Amino acid sequence: MMDAQQQVTSSRVLAVDSDKSWEIILGRAQAQDCPVAVHFTADWCPPSKYMAGFFENLSLQYPDILFLLVDVDEVKGVKDKMDVKAMPTFLLMKDGVQEDKIVGANADELQKRVAAFAQMVRQSTEDKA
Predict the structure, then answer these.
(1) Is residue 90 within a helix (H) or strand (E), and if so which, with residue range?
(2) Are 92 and 36 in contact (CB under 8 A)?
(3) Which of 54, 82, 62 is nearest to 70 (CA)?
(4) Whole-structure pTM over 0.85, yes or no?
(5) Using one digit for the tens of pLDDT, what is the confidence trace for 54-68?
(6) Which residues, in sequence order, are bridge partners of residue 16?
């Protein structure tokens, strides 16, 4: 168990440990106009665990996006609030609003949608400039 914890701390993926920290992190991201990608996971779900490494790699490819990990058993309020019913679920959010939702361990689809999301974010940032 200790290894997984250490892995998360040294990574670019930030583990959300409570409903309160979810609110704080999202608030900061919104204030800084930072897009967010969220991986809803569970210890008992092998496909979620399988996708964790892939999600980690995406976080390195897209440094402009904040990558969050939410364990649905530890942070139940967020799961309910964001209407997450299956693991793994990935949400792509901008300005506190869900822009996209990917359900299931589909690495190719996640890669495509995050790339499209990053492109959209870049576009909207350029439009504001």
Answers:
(1) strand 89-94
(2) yes
(3) 82
(4) yes
(5) 999 999 999 999 999
(6) 70
